[in-house]
Amino acid sequence: MYKLSSHIQATIEHLHKIIVNYSGRLIAIPEEVYNLKPGPGKWSKKEILGHLVDSAQNNIRRFVVAQYEDIPRIVYNQDKWVAIADYQHYPTDDLVSLWILLNRHICLVLKNTSREAAQRRCDNSDTEKQTIEWLAADYCNHLLHHLHQILEMDPIAYP
Fold first, then answer.
1. DSSP for 51-69?
2. How far apart are CA 77 and CA 68, in angstroms?
3. 156 Cα distance to chain centroid
4. 9, 95, 135, 159: least CB-packed within 10 angstroms?
């Protein structure tokens, strides 16, 4: 195992706390609440959770590929991913389990990211190419923003 940057270590700890603190709450949401669409063109809670699964998958790819390729471009069309996966009809228990497992996997990937590798950059379609370290911290902020939407908690701003 590598000596981690303090920022990556803090992000791993933060993500682990998110998994522990939110997984039970996600499991407790009734199916009918998950499936309710708030309006035309709006995602249900289940589709938002599916979006978080897609985000986890794409970020895993960023965290891995950026360690061996120079500034890889890894982007995705979130609306198409949610539609193609048809999360609205996905088994809810499986979706929650998948979200938990993917986030645990992110923790493991980040634990295997050296200080030097954490400074490598990835193009995720922002105006500036970001480091793995920055992307990992941003991932947690994105996660909390959407988890608070799903759980109808006080909103957390996310750009």
1. HHHHHHHHHHHHHHHTTTS
2. 24
3. 15
4. 159
CATH topology of domain 6-150: Four Helix Bundle (Hemerythrin (Met), subunit A) (1.20.120)
Q: What is the DSSP letter of 40?
A: T
Convert the pLDDT of each residue in 73-115 to its tens digit.
999 999 999 999 999 999 999 999 999 999 999 999 999 999 9
Beta bridge partners of 123: 73
The DSSP-derived string for 83-136 is HHHTGGGS-HHHHHHHHHHHHHHHHHHHHT--HHHHT-EEB-SSSS-EEHHHHH
pTM: 0.95
Which residues does residue 131 pair with via DSSP β-bridges, in sequence order? 121
